[in-house]
């Protein structure tokens, strides 16, 4: 699984396994991410995850659940989500991501059903365990579609499509309508505007008022929205994004630590180094020297 490519509105670019088949089926692990935490992101696809080994916390629209070995989660379309481990423990998993274009483009009965079940008014996520029969079937199907996609022979696109649609049908039967769905869409739009502002201006001095103004909300509402949907304060999100960009620069450029600190919006090199060590576990130069190659495993 490759590191996430996340745009300024937190949407993710997905590289599907096969041309013209909108399925992403791969293995991943938390230790491929800086600080054992994936970037918060969303996509129009629905997502299924099965935990192979270890455990992790998983945040969906600000709600955090614990996933242990043998369990999994379904994440609905357009929900902000990410996995992490606050203890920096590794976790390996299978991820299956399915786009609606798998059932064809344009108006159709199947597209209408997709829009109903995987729209903003339905459950954001469902935790999957082997204690409930239908959930156990979903977990088994996640493993089966992975085995088919990575068959030593060429994968069968008919079987892959059938398995993917079976996953969607199985979880769709159990999704419930939630309260406040229409309001959530507008609030989510505000979040996108504020995170986009941070991504586009992180190298400059940014205040809480600046972030709030980008989303056309007051400072109090800004903090409430970030805590609810992103699971952290606006300032913490800004700091984490700056650290994320600094990690990229340390890996991909030869710029000095002081240059990188300033380029990422940190006014003091000493503060940057101290914060970097606290969050990442290494000082910037040690991180660059190590290269984190051993922690950036790319799997099928």
Walk me through this protein's architecture.
- With 300 residues, the chain is of the alpha+beta class.
- The chain has ten helices and nine strands.
- The protein has helices at 109-117, 133-149, 157-172, 181-201, 208-214, 219-230, 234-252, 257-263, 269-280, 284-290, and strands at residues 5-6, 12-13, 23-29, 46-60, 63-68, 72-75, 81-84, 91-98, 125-128.
- Strands 3, 4, 5, 6, 7, 8 and 9 form a seven-stranded antiparallel beta sheet that branches.
- A hairpin with a 2-residue loop joins strand 4 and strand 5 (63-68).
- The radius of gyration is 20 Å and the shape is globular.
- Mean pLDDT is 88; it is low at 293-300.
Secondary structure topology:
Layout: E1 5-6, E2 12-13, E3 23-29, E4 46-60, E5 63-68, E6 72-75, E7 81-84, E8 91-98, H1 109-117, E9 125-128, H2 133-149, H3 157-172, H4 181-201, H5 208-214, H6 219-230, H7 234-252, H8 257-263, H9 269-280, H10 284-290
Antiparallel strand pairs: 1-2, 3-8, 4-5, 4-6, 4-7, 4-8, 6-9
Helix pairs in contact: 2-3, 4-5, 4-6, 5-6
């Amino acid at each position: 699984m490759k590191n996430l490519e996340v745009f300024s509105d937190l949407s993710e670019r997905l590289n599907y396994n096969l041309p013209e088949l909108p399925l992403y089926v791969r293995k991943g692990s938390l230790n491929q991410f800086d600080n054992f935490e994936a970037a918060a992101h969303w996509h129009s696809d629905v997502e299924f995850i099965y935990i192979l080994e270890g455990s992790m916390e998983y945040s969906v629209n600000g709600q955090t659940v614990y996933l242990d070995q043998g369990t999994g989660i379904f994440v609905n379309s357009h929900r902000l989500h990410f996995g992490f481990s606050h203890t920096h423990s590794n976790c390996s998993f299978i991820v299956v991501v399915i786009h609606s274009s798998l059932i064809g483009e344009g108006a159709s009965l199947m597209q209408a059903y997709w829009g109903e079940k995987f729209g903003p008014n339905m459950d954001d996520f469902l935790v999957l365990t082997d204690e409930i029969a239908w959930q156990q079937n979903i977990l088994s199907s996640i493993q089966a579609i992975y085995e088919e996609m990575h068959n030593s022979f060429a994968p069968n696109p008919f079987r892959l499509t059938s398995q993917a649609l079976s996953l969607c049908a199985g979880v769709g039967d159990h999704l419930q309508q939630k309260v406040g769905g229409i309001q959530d869409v507008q609030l989510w739009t505000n979040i996108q505007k504020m995170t986009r502002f941070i991504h586009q201006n992180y190298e400059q001095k940014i205040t809480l008022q600046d972030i709030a103004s980008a989303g056309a909300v007051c400072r109090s509402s800004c903090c409430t929205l970030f805590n609810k949907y992103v699971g952290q304060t606006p300032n913490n999100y800004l700091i984490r994004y700056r650290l994320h960009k600094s990690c990229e620069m340390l890996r991909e450029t030869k710029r000095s630590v002081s240059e990188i600190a300033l380029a990422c919006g940190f006014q003091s090199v000493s503060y940057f180094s101290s914060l970097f060590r606290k969050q990442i576990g290494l000082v910037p130069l040690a991180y660059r020297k190590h290269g984190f190659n051993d922690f950036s495993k790319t799997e099928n």
